[in-house]
Design brief:
The chain starts with a helix and ends with a helix. It has eight helices and no strands. The chain is an all-alpha fold and 180 residues long. It has one domain (25-163): Up-down Bundle (Multidrug efflux transporter AcrB transmembrane fold), CATH 1.20.1640. GO terms for molecular function: xenobiotic transmembrane transporter activity.
Length: 180
């Protein structure tokens, strides 16, 4: 499953570095799922594995959407010509990350609203459904935190180290590429 996710991310973004950046969201989400599985004293089973597969999909979606917003904010700053310093890079990344706070909170609230009744309800089939829901609920505690705080910080370090600033040295190259 992880290899398929990585290949799809690589085909989408066209860069190994961006695919790996999104894949970083998986371990943090899995930690939350494992934590809740341990807390509820569930054994690893097929049902738990299905829950982890669903959690992996949501965690990658969080990472992909955050990366798209960060890339768009960086491209907007570059087009506006406001990417001359490291402060400008940080401001552009913060702008992209802030745009995701409300949608991410709504997504997490919706997932909790759908899965908590499954985890808390008894009855026929609950012994199968609870272990499926548990990794998702646990992962929804940690995955959004990574996506909102850690991913933008790593993105900032990556972009800073790859020379993504529009410094005065790069301006002649940009002007030369315009072919006025």
């Amino acid at each position: 499953t992880l290899l398929i996710i990585f290949v799809l991310l690589y085909l989408t973004f066209g860069r190994v570095s961006e695919a790996l950046l999104v894949m970083l969201s998986l371990p943090f989400a899995l930690v939350g799922g494992l934590w809740l599985i341990h807390l509820l004293d569930y054994n690893l089973s097929i049902a738990v594995a299905v829950g982890f597969i669903a959690l992996a999909g949501v965690a990658v979606e969080f990472g992909v959407i955050m990366l798209v917003y960060l890339d768009n904010a960086l491209a907007d700053a570059r087009r506006a010509g406001t990417l001359a310093s490291e402060q400008d890079l940080k401001a552009a990344i913060e702008e992209g990350a802030v745009l995701r706070i409300r949608p991410k909170a709504m997504t997490v609230a919706t997932i909790f609203a759908g899965l908590l009744p499954i985890m808390l309800q008894g009855g026929v089939g609950s012994e199968v459904m609870r272990p499926i829901a548990a990794p998702m609920v646990g992962g929804m505690v940690t995955a959004p935190l990574l996506s909102l705080f850690v991913l933008p910080a790593i993105y900032l370090l990556w972009r800073r180290n790859t020379g993504q600033l529009m410094s005065t040295d790069s301006v002649p190259h940009v002007i030369a590429d315009l072919k006025i």
